[in-house]
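Run: sequence + magnesium ion -> complex structure.
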Amino acid sequence: MQPPPLKNDCFALPPGVDWTPVDEALVLLRDRLTPVTAAEEAPLAEAEGRVLAADVIAPRSNPPQPNAAVDGYGFAGPAPEGVREMPLAEGRAAAGAPFRGRVPEGHALRILTGAALPEGVDTVILEEDVSREGDRIAFHGPLKRGANARRAGEDVEAGDVILRAGRRLTPPDLALLAATGCDRVALRAPLRVAVLSTGDELVEPGEIAGEDEIYDANRPMLLALLRRFGCVAVDMGRVPDDRVALRATLDRAAGQADAILTSGGASAGDEDHVSALLRETGAMQQWRIAIKPGRPLALGLWNGAPVFGLPGNPVAALVCTLVFARPALGLLAGAGWAAPQGFDVPAAFAKSKKPGRREYLRARIREGRAEVFASEGSGRISGLSWAEGLVELEDGARDIRPGDPVRFLPYASFGL
Ligand code: AMP
Ligand code: MG
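>> structure
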């Protein structure tokens, strides 16, 4: 008897079943989740990477007063075309050591970068463009009024909204806040996210692994991802494929965290206890998302805490975390919905893609082209580590030839 032909596409979509497209799944998440973190005041030194709880209004202008943008000589501009000669006023203006008094009409004053423009000065000639003899200078015009000078408030006016609520503060944001006189800001408490791994086969790195055992690779990855997302990662350890143990761990996790990430056990099989328990609560959605790699994703609420039941395969766990959990956690954290910013680059590969699901390939850019990892196997952890981002292939069919544009999402665009 002839055996049945092997299926070479194990992700073929069963006929007549509705699969949720990635974009629809994202819209559902975006519409349903709201911030859960409280606001608190904190000093600037603790604000990096945290989320603003309120708009920030600049208490002070930047710069607070007109000042010199270069080292040179200040005078009342403009200077017309041709050679100009000027006597120097006595004294000088430096940053933090202003010239007190008025520079007389027709005179110039030695002035250094950052020095407040004294009365009678609105224009600065660059030191390199000047010849000086004793107390006289000469230079070539023309020079516009205001040249090489900074206007008060040209960067920021006092009273301007400089940063909006929901902003995750970057190091440059701290410079902006400091420069405009903010020393304390209203921040959201960091989102606390619990992580647990499920599976009888898992052991801890450092332990001796039996033949049938594998090391828990998802948990260190997920804990580190969460820290990169600005969350407080709470390690709940490993849980065997046992409903009583899992229930107890979920209870503890919900008591300590705002959200929970689990990996493994999220399908509908005998040992898929995460989805089974979430189904019992009645707040479970088994999301059949048209994505590769990544199905299944179990989403539910456990004692009020949203649970993202990620697939066990590390590649799928990472992709689902980046694509679904990250923006969702952003909303919970009060940072708003953050879509990754990708860009189109020529492919360095060929691929024929079937319609009906979105695909994410482990990829990196070399010489301006997107290379993809040699294998698409979802257990190939080495490919995750090899990659520097993902190539995102749209839901429809694609026949990609080298040089065709593909969308590259650097890991950095997911906050990594
Ligand atoms: P599951 O989703 O539980 O059916 O697991 C799918 C595959 O991922 C199986 O081969 C598991 O052994 C593997 N897996 C599950 N959890 C982990 C983990 N934490 N680290 C590494 N592999 C895992
Ligand atoms: Mg499992």
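>> summary
The pocket of magnesium ion (ligand 2) is lined by residues 198-199, 264-265, 271, 312 (CB under 6 Å). Helices lie at 22-32, 171-179, 218-228, 243-256, 273-281, 314-332, 381-386.
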